[in-house]
Structures are given as C-alpha cells and as structure tokens.
C-alpha cells in the first residue's frame, strides 16, 4: 500500500506568475486530476468546493458526508479525504495557500473564518436553492477573474473577492449553527491555542498537565474549559488527535503496527492496541481491515 499523497498547489496549472490560488469548475478539475483526487489524499492548502448538481459520498478524516446540490465543503491543510461521485456531478472549486489570504489583510487571518477556526467545527454546509445560486455566482466571479486575460492586479482582486465569498459563507454557516467552537471570548482563544498545541505536540505529549503548563493554567481550569465548551475532557481531545493520526497511518501508510505505535509515542504496542480498542471498539488491525473492506464495497 502506498503512502498517502499530499497535493501541492504547484501540481495544478500555473496562471502566469504564481499567485498561490487556483479556481475551476469541478467537472474540469475532476477530468484533469481524476487519478489524484478520487483516492484518499491530502493538501497543503485550503480547499472549498460547492456542488450544484449530482450526488455522491465525501469522506473527510474517516467521517462520511453525502454530496447533494448545495453542499459546500471546507478543507484545511493536512486533512485526508476522497470522493465517490455520480457521473452528472457539477460544481465549482477553488483553493489557495494561507499566505495568499493572510498577506493581503493585516487585520485578519483565514483561520478567523468559522469553518477554518477549528477542526472541531463542521466541514460541510448545506445550502438551500436560493443560497446555492447566490454562492455559485460568487464562485463564478472568482473563476472569471482567475481565468481572465486582464492580469493587472489579479491577485489583489482575487483576494478581495475571496474575502467577500468567505464572509457570505460565514454568515450562512453561523446561521445554521454549525460551530462547535465559538470565536468569541477568552475561552475560545484558549481552546484555539490548545488545539494548535495538541497538533504540534501530540506525538510526544500525552498528559493534560503538559498542555495546561503551556497555556499557563491549572489542569482543573483546563478541564473546566474543555468540558464547559465542548463537553470533552482534555484527555479526550488529545486521544482523539492521536487516534486520527493512527487511523491515517493504518489505512494509508506502509508502517508495521509496532512502528505506528512507536511513531505516535508508545513504545509498548500492546498498550497502544488496548487504548485504540478502548476508544474505537476495534483493534488497530481490525479497523484497517474493516475500512478497506468498506471502501471495496463502494468502489
């Protein structure tokens, strides 16, 4: 089994001087890159797609979502996903680097938008027909500018259109109550920092106390913070991130079970296997077999 592929912006068609942004109809995107995007893969960029017709399945980090007209998906760098789509699928897609957005605005970051603020927040937004038409018009504005022959200040106009698109999507996203982690208040800022610290350290730091120290708070305070906001303990958040990486390595990698355990910071594979089963109800090998069997049935 090959390691999972990580797609880079440079693998897609260039547009004059590199501007770290790409936009296309989903049909053309699928035709040009079918082999790369219909198998599990990652990106090192932000990706947003709006489907306007057709149906299918979209799996993101082992969560399966239905694809229907009006489905909007938001993917952050590093997430694993793949599609199973009908032949009549249509939509619009764009993606960009963090720098493309963040360098254009001194007062905000792409991570300020609710769908990117935390990976605990939903990766999908389902629009009704009027809002689907409204957002399709926004996506088409981006596509027209990206595909146009007028190259004067193209990047500047694209970043402005991108900001407007994200603002409108954010309003729709918040109106549907899609956020698990709010971006308001000191607590949410601490949760965002905690998530970032876990992402950076989960292979080596497993104890809530280590993260509490990094955040300059007591373990009791950290526990109140996560339980009150997410109804999850710090240990659960840390373990969920470890298990997600374990699942990725199990089904997309080539390492042995003992090597996966070691790479995730567990020298005792038996202990890691017990931990995995406690949280998933399956042993690591059984999970990998079940996942591959499920994929085979839908291919």
From TrEMBL:
Keywords: DNA-binding, Transcription, Transcription regulation. Coiled coil: none annotated. PROSITE patterns: HTH_ARAC_FAMILY_2. Residues 192-290 form the HTH araC/xylS-type domain. InterPro entries: AraC-bd, Homeodomain-like_sf, HTH-like, HTH_AraC, RmlC-like_jellyroll. It comes from the Bacteria. This is AraC family transcriptional regulator.
């Amino acid at each position: 089994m090959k390691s999972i592929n990580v797609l880079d912006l440079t693998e897609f068609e260039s547009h004059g001087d590199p501007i770290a942004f790409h936009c296309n109809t989903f049909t053309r995107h699928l035709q040009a890159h079918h082999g790369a995007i219909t198998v599990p893969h990652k990106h090192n960029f932000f990706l947003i797609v709006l489907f306007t017709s057709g149906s299918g399945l979209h799996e993101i980090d082992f969560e399966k979502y239905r694809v229907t007209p009006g489905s909007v998906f938001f993917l952050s760098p590093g997430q694993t996903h793949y599609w199973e789509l009908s032949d009549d699928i249509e939509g619009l897609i764009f993606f960009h680097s963090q720098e493309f957005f963040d360098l254009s605005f001194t007062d905000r970051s792409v991570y300020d938008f609710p769908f990117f603020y935390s990976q605990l927040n939903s990766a999908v937004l389902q629009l009704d027909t009027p809002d689907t038409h409204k957002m399709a018009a926004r996506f088409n504005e981006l596509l027209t500018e990206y595909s146009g022959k007028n190259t004067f200040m193209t990047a500047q106009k694209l970043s402005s259109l991108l900001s407007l698109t994200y603002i409108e999507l954010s309003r729709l996203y918040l109106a549907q109550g899609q956020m698990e982690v709010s971006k308001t208040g000191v607590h949410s800022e601490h949760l965002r920092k905690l998530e970032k610290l876990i992402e950076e350290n989960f292979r080596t730091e497993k104890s809530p106390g280590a993260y509490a120290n990094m955040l300059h708070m007591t373990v009791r305070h950290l526990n109140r913070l996560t339980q009150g906001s997410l109804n999850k303990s710090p240990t659960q958040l840390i373990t969920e991130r470890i298990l997600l990486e374990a699942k990725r390595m199990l089904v997309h990698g080539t390492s042995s079970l003992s090597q996966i355990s070691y790479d995730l910071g567990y020298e005792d594979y038996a202990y890691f296997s017990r931990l995995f089963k406690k949280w998933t109800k399956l042993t690591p090998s059984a999970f990998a077999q079940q996942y591959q069997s499920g994929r085979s049935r839908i291919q």
